[in-house]
Predict the 3D structure of the following.
Amino acid sequence: MALRMTMRIWEQPTPWASAEAFCRGYQCVACLNAAVVAQFPALFRLRGAMGTLWALGRDAPINPTRMLEHLGCLRNAANWLDQHGSRLAELVAHHLGT
């Protein structure tokens, strides 16, 4: 989650400098095995879905406009990950992989 929030792909068209800085700092305290690194794109998707579900669940009744906004954000993040997920996994592997 910290890497996702650092990258802020919904605000930054090119989040790679932020991602590299985060990974360089994080590598001082942890290394990740290849199986975890390979899952980073999927973990980004799941974390986005969790936030959307939480936001929608706090509205009672659900606001349809708000729901469409959140689903649009999820779609945009999925599109970004479809285009850049392998680069994300490579960056994490380079800095944090074992």
Summary: The chain has five helices and no strands. The chain has a mean pLDDT of 87. The first helix runs from residue 2 to 7.
